[in-house]
Amino acid sequence: MRYASLGSGSRGNATLVVENERAVLIDCGFSKRNVLTRLQASGTDPRQLDGVFVTHEHGDHAKGVVALCEGLNIPFYASFGTARKMEWLEHPLWRCIRSDEVMTVGAMGVLPVVVPHDAEEPLQFVIENAQQRRLGVLSDLGSLTPHILSAYEGCHGLQVEANHDPQMLRSGPYPPSLQARVAGNFGHLSNQQCAQLLERLMWDGLQHVTAGHISEKNNARTLVGEALCGVLGCAPSDVRLLEQDAVSDWCQL
Ligand SMILES: [Zn+2]
Ligand SMILES: [Zn+2]
């Protein structure tokens, strides 16, 4: 199994996961045209896509889902709550997924995991192949729950959220109400919460860790590196950070 981020941040998210040359996208928070350009940059033919898994209804995750899937005639998978918010309930390409029920697409099993976030019924995903290689994709959550920690145990690859630095958030441009939302239990993970998460999920089999959904206003990439380098046991500059406007390198599991 291999995976790459097509872009990550508050202006759009999409993660490509490939097994046996068949692919799924986790989220499509870019326009159809933009995501097709990014797919091409990753060396992926759109015809390899078998579906799009949608974490929640926020625009940076769901914006291009329908246009892309209608264009390719492939299904999109989302919780009932997300589909209701997006007015997808009558859409012929929508497939309903539920927390803790594995959905098999091609040679991949996709496990939806419920997370605390200010959306209708947000899910994040653990993807497993036939060899039990596991990728955990986890962003847009305000706090860590025992359920999340157990669902993401034993992952060989982790793509996690390091959204904000609490000090920068407090002194940043957001109004107090939005600051409280971002920092709250249903908001986003801070760099320090991300480090705590990784500390709990660290094990011998973990090969790749990438951090994304990094706020452009309330965080600095150097601060993410400094927060995560201890738990990852590397230099701050070697912590692998995703970018908003660039396709990442592939990670192979
Ligand atoms: Zn988001
Ligand atoms: Zn969100």
Automatic annotation (TrEMBL):
<protein>
    <submittedName>
        <fullName>MBL fold metallo-hydrolase</fullName>
    </submittedName>
</protein>
<dbReference type="InterPro" id="IPR052533">
    <property type="entry name" value="WalJ/YycJ-like"/>
</dbReference>
<feature type="domain" description="Metallo-beta-lactamase">
    <location>
        <begin position="11"/>
        <end position="188"/>
    </location>
</feature>
<dbReference type="Pfam" id="PF12706">
    <property type="entry name" value="Lactamase_B_2"/>
</dbReference>
<dbReference type="InterPro" id="IPR001279">
    <property type="entry name" value="Metallo-B-lactamas"/>
</dbReference>
<dbReference type="InterPro" id="IPR036866">
    <property type="entry name" value="RibonucZ/Hydroxyglut_hydro"/>
</dbReference>
